[in-house]
Design brief:
single chain, alpha/beta, 7-stranded mixed beta sheet, 11 helices, 23% strand, globular
Length: 276
C-alpha cells in the first residue's frame, strides 16, 4: 500500500477519534477538576521565567490554568481549545480577575496563527491527549519563534493519572493505532517529537497532590465531572462495577493520607523546550 493511500485512510480515522475525544472532554464539567490544578500552571510559568509583555499561546488550554498564570504576569495571552465550553470557563475566570486575554476556538493540530507568532507556547495536561501527536508537536513548533520556549506539564505513565488511564484501558481498550497520551511524560517520546528542532529539552519530574475529603468523594467528583471517567462509566453501564473497584484499589495504593481523607501524589513531567 502506498504512503499516500495509508495517509488517506488514517486521516478520517484520526478525525473520528478526535470528534469522540471532543465529546468526552465536553461531557461532565472538567473545570470542577481543572481549577484544582492551578498551581501547575503557576509553577510552569515560573520555571519558564515568563517576561512581562511576552506573546504567549496556551493550547488545549481547558479552563485556563496556564492562561491565567501567564496573564497574571502581564503577558499578551491567547488561550485556545477545541472545546468551546471549556474556553468559556476560562473567559469567566479572566473576567472575574479583570485580565485581558484573547480566547479562540482552535485545534492544536491545525493552529490558525502565523509562523513564529509567539514567544512562548504552553500546555498543561492538554496537548498530550491529541490523537496525532507528531502533528500537534509540529504545530507548536511552527508558531513558536526561533529561540522561544515551549512549556508543558504532562502526566507520566508511572504516575497516578497515567495509571488511571491504564486502568480505564483494561475495561475500554483505546482506539487502535493511537499512541498513549502518557508518552508525552517521557523523555524518549519528547525527543522524538521535538528533538530535531530543539536546542534543549529539560524535563523535571514533579508531583501534584490530589486532595479530597475521602476516596468516595474523589470517585463522586471524577465520575460526575471528569470527562474520560464520566464517559467510561456511561459506556460500561452495568459492567462499570469492575472499573469502580479497580479505580478504588488504585486510590488505596497511592493514597498517603492516614486520617480518612485522600491525598494522592501524582507524578507529572514539567518540560521546557527551547526552539532552535
Amino acid at each position: 500500500m502506498s504512503t499516500a493511500l495509508k495517509q488517506n485512510e488514517t486521516l478520517p480515522a484520526l478525525q473520528a477519534i478526535k470528534e469522540k475525544q471532543r465529546a468526552t472532554w465536553a461531557s461532565g464539567d472538567y473545570a470542577v477538576v481543572g481549577t484544582t490544578l492551578q498551581i501547575v500552571g503557576e509553577q510552569l510559568c515560573e520555571t519558564i521565567n515568563l517576561r512581562p509583555g511576552a506573546r504567549v499561546l496556551d493550547v488545549a488550554a481547558g479552563n485556563g490554568n496556564a492562561t491565567l498564570a501567564a496573564a497574571r504576569r502581564f503577558c499578551q495571552v491567547t488561550s485556545t481549545d477545541y472545546v468551546e465550553t471549556l474556553l468559556n470557563k476560562g473567559r469567566d475566570r479572566a473576567a472575574a480577575e479583570h485580565l485581558d486575554i484573547t480566547f479562540e476556538v482552535a485545534d492544536v493540530e491545525a493552529l490558525p496563527f502565523e509562523d513564529a507568532a509567539f514567544d512562548v507556547v504552553l500546555s498543561t495536561y492538554g496537548v498530550m491527549f491529541t490523537p496525532d501527536q507528531a502533528k500537534a508537536a509540529s504545530e507548536m513548533l511552527r508558531v513558536c519563534r526561533s529561540g522561544g520556549q515551549i512549556g508543558l506539564a504532562n502526566w507520566t505513565p508511572e504516575g497516578f493519572i497515567g495509571q488511571v488511564f491504564k486502568t480505564i484501558g483494561k475495561h475500554l481498550p483505546p482506539p487502535a493505532g493511537v499512541k498513549s497520551p502518557a508518552l508525552w511524560g517521557t523523555e524518549a517520546a519528547l525527543r522524538e517529537l521535538f528533538g530535531s528542532a530543539a536546542v534543549s529539552i529539560d524535563l523535571t519530574p514533579r508531583l501534584f497532590n490530589f486532595r479530597y475529603l475521602s476516596p468516595d468523594h474523589f470517585m463522586e467528583v471524577f465520575r460526575t465531572y471528569y470527562g474520560p471517567i464520566h464517559k467510561a462509566f456511561l459506556a460500561l453501564g452495568d459492567a462499570g462495577g469492575a472499573l469502580d473497584s479497580d479505580l478504588r484499589a488504585l486510590l488505596d495504593r497511592f493514597n498517603v493520607a492516614t486520617d480518612g481523607t485522600l491525598i494522592v501524589p501524582s507524578e507529572y513531567a514539567e518540560v521546557v523546550i527551547r526552539k532552535a
